[in-house]
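Input/output pair, single chain:
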Amino acid sequence: MSITKLPLVALMESIHPMGIELLMKHCELEHMPSAENDEFEKILGKADAVIIRSTLFTEEMMKKAPNLKVIGRHGAGTDNIDLTAAKNLGIKVVTTPQANTASVAEYVITVALMLLKRIPEVSTSLRQGAFSSNAGSLPGQVDRASLTGREANGTRLGLIGAGAIGAAVARLASHLGIHVAAYDPYLDKTKERPFELVDDLDELLSRSDIVSLHVPGGPDSHHLIGRRELEMMPPGAILINAARGELVDQEALISVLESGHLAGAAIDVYATEPPDPNSRLFCAPNLILTPHMAAMTEEALQRMATQVTTQVIQELGQMQSMPR
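Output:
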């Protein structure tokens, strides 16, 4: 009796154990070394599929993988994959576009509320001894120090991009009484939506108390938000970027925070990751910095791992007998 050889899947970064377990039932699995050494190239040369997270996967790497049929992206974006090369080489690319939607949407609402309530600022003040036992009540000291926050109810949220994650943010925000508008030229304007669609980005920026970005990276969106756009936002507004680091001009953001034009910002993604610990970002006032972790919840990691592995297995099953 002949034994059918299992396809080889190369795992370039760790994924949730549920994904590993699923792969091992249907495929041979190899863990790639972190550096591109001889072992890396040996595994790549045998792989029928690779699963990546944030690793760059270039045309050169694809050409070193003559058996490669599928690239599985553990996540929604594909800006770390040379899609043109993959198409030209007949390699299928699969992603998990909605697996982290709820987690990222919750992150956006969480940091928006933290900034509206000025929690990072007042927590730091308290830790630094800014409140005195002989200066009256704590609420009175907060008031006199002009550290009062804002209610979310009645504020205006502007979404730049209103796909799956943006729409999920809109749904959560609406429950808090936040008015939501979005700029997204790719949306069908004839379809009814639970938020207002705005045709002009400048208009959205100029009327939003909170702006949250939900668009892919790439040359067309590099520094989509620069000094001009930041200064167009109302005084005291808030910016949130949990999409791609290159969307925002970092130096311009620091300047408008230092000037006090923006009340605060939250940044989860960076043009260079991790960010330089000596960066001026770490000294900017009222700036929440997190390490690209908006989607890093147990539930989202399970979904991303199982969805990407399921798709890879399905594609290999469909393509196993088809030479490239």
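The chain has a mean pLDDT of 93. The chain has twelve helices and twelve strands.
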